[in-house]
Amino acid sequence: MSKSAANTDAQTDTLRFVLDGKVIELDNVDPTRTVLQFLREDLRRTGTKEGCAEGDCGACTVVLAELDRKGDDVILRAVNSCIQFLPTLDGKELITVESLSRHGELHPAQRAMIDCHGSQCGFCTPGFVMSLYALYEAMDNPSRREIDDALAGNLCRCTGYRPIIEAAQKMYESRAASTQGHNPELLRALLRKDGLTITHCGKSFFAPTSVDELASLMASHPDATVLAGGTDIGLWITKQHRELRTLIYTGHVAELRQVAVNATHIEIGAAVTLSDAMTLIVEHYPDLEELFLRFASPPIRNAATLGGNIANGSPIGDSMPALMVAGASLLLSRGRSQREVALEDFYPAYQHTDLRTSEFIETVRIPLPEARFILHSHKLSKRFDQDISAVCTAYRLELDGDRVVSFRMACGGLAATIKRAANCEAAVIGQQWNEATIDSASQALADDFEPISDMRASAAYRLRAVQNLLRRFYLETRGELAATVYNYGR
Fold first, then answer.
1. Residue 137 DSSP SS3
2. Residue 479 main-chain phi, psi, to 5 deg
């Protein structure tokens, strides 16, 4: 048994990460202290702002640099520091707005924001600068769509966004190599062979590095909170003020960070970020691109994981309807035992899953698409970007001429759980793909779900919306309505 799985009441490791080219070592760290709190209160780096404390506004945006899965290159990604727990920085490099001009010269993103008058009150500006910096480091001369997506996690009440978008375009006029000096060797030196263990005032934080170590910890701490990207659990601390006594972090488990494509399936480790998972899924299912572009924001997708999105049991997780109709399954592990469960069977009740005590998701398995299937998804929300769905639907259709050979439909946000629409499917399969069939299928949807009412929509609105979205899918497949496209000029 590794040291992390043993009794660790007296055992605590030193947290190590890079800031401004230097290794920072911290002892006696509160496991649920956020990166934002550490920056503002401990380091007095007040450029990073707190706006919402829930990952919505982007004022707290920082950039994390870490080694890729192969350990060859450094990847930079913007994240929300307000819901990122400090111990998750172990082995990474933290870049703040103060880091960009530490050599006395403004970064091109900062200079462009000044030249284009991209700041008014200035509160949101550091977060925008950090998102622009991440974009600058990631690609050359991005399109308007790519700029819009990179800034989707940053809100501004003053500028109307036009001068900020102009700054995003202008910053490439002085394009130069990165001046931040990201050092892969320095990050490699911080890699741990054994997992990280931190104890503080009765709280424990474990970050195993292997699936065996994770399984051992899960068995030793069956009541522990499993932490992935923290985009939900972070709010338990910042908004609900919960006391989390034991955290097991999956972000360093090597096996859970792997992706593979074999002859029949896409296999995605549970700790793979949504950004990486979605890139791979869209490569094989291009019709899901808009759904994933509208899924939260880049800082959230860069931290959140596919496994975490599935495991939290929320009825508003946008990935699950599409994965359900695609026929996805989950490889679940406990100790040395494994079992495979279809995603559509994973949610027995509201915010409940089929996970057993000490069991965890190891791999998400998605069948490769077949040419005979049409797979598409619709998301309906009040805002285009970074908004929770009122409803999210997905469909998989197989036609033989005008006759429906097979049909699947799943709905999220509509009811207490995400599930397939069994009665609707039965009303479609074997029928002609025509208006009469859609009318029958729409009526059957009322028997499939008990719609909920909340701040986003009423039950009646949700049911009508899902029925209309089914009709939209029909019109799209008949060629009578262009498929939903990304709005470049929004």
1. helix
2. 80, 10
In the chain, the amino acid numbered 305 is: T
Distance of CA 129 to the CA centre of its chain: 21
Select from 58, 60, 125 the least CA-distant residue to 96.
60
Q: What is the pLDDT of residues 59-69, one digit of tens each?
A: 999 999 999 87
Question: What are the extents of the domains in the chain?
Answer: 14-183, 373-484+486-490
CATH of domain 14-183: 3.10.20.30
Q: What is the model's pLDDT at position 196? A: 97
pLDDT per position as a tens digit, 340-397: 999 999 999 998 999 999 999 999 999 999 999 999 999 999 888 888 899 999 999 9
Nearest-angstrom CA–CA distance, 466 and 392: 8
Would you report the helix, strand and coil content of the chain in percent, each value rounded to 5? Answer: 35, 20, 45
CA 464 to chain centre: 29
CB of 232 closer than 8 Å to CB of 65? no
As given in the structure block, the two tokens for residue 437 are 């069939």
Question: For 287-418, where are the alpha helices, taking DSSP H only?
Answer: 289-293, 298-303, 306-311, 319-326
78 closest CA partner among 128, 140, 122: 128
Tokens for 411, please give them: 């709905």
Task: Show the low-confidence residues of the chain (pLDDT under 70).
Answer: 1-10, 176-181, 480-490
Using DSSP, state whether 204 is helix, strand or coil: strand
**In this structure, which amino acid lies at residue 61?**
T
Angle at 383 between CA 364 and CA 140, to 5 degrees: 70
Kind of pairing, strands 246-249 and 225-227?
parallel
CATH class in words for 373-484+486-490: alpha beta
Contact 382, 359 (CB under 8 A): no
CA distance 349 to 51: 34
Q: Which helix (H) or strand (E) holds 235?
A: helix 233-238
Buried b / exposed e along 271-302 (16+ C-beta atoms within 10 A)? bbbbbbbbebbbeebebbbbbbbbbbbbbbbb
Element (H, E) at 463: helix 459-477
Q: What residues contact residue 97 under an 8 Å CB cut-off, 6+ apart?
A: 47, 48, 62, 126, 129, 130
DSSP letters for 156-184: -SSS-SHHHHHHHHHGGGG-----S---H
**If residue 409 lies in a helix (H) or strand (E), which one and from where to where?**
strand 403-412
- Longest Cα–Cα distance of the chain, Å, equals 70
Q: Which residues contact 376 (CB under 8 A, 6 or more apart)?
A: 287, 288, 394, 395, 473, 476, 483
- Residue 128 tokens read as 């925008």
